[in-house]
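Please fill in the sequence for the structure shown.

STRUCTURE ENCODING:
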């Protein structure tokens, strides 16, 4: 099971960053999530794409990209990026601090 985190936007969303979310991000960004270092110099656009990808697969969440964009601002951008980065590391067994089990 993928690790989860609480993403605080207009309300608290429980999100994960698993295969579905990364594939959705890759479709939106054209980036290879495994090969590109996504979190080095992450852009606002990539944060938005990751948030949207995570929320798309959250239970009961059907926000559009525009609605997601409206929920991200200067006051919460760093917290959101940090949550996404920590969730990414927690889900990878090949990264120090990752909790996911190798199959």
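FILLED IN BY: designer on duty
SEQUENCE:
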């Amino acid at each position: 099971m993928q690790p989860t985190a609480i993403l605080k936007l207009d309300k608290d969303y429980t999100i994960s960053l698993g295969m579905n979310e990364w594939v959705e991000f890759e479709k939106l960004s054209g980036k290879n999530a495994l090969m590109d270092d996504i979190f080095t110099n992450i852009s606002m656009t990539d944060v938005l794409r990751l948030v949207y990808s995570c929320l798309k697969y959250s239970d009961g969440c059907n926000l559009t990209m525009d609605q997601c964009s409206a929920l991200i601002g200067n006051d919460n951008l760093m917290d959101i990026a940090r949550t996404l980065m920590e969730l990414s590391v927690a889900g990878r067994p090949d990264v120090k601090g990752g909790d996911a089990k190798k199959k």
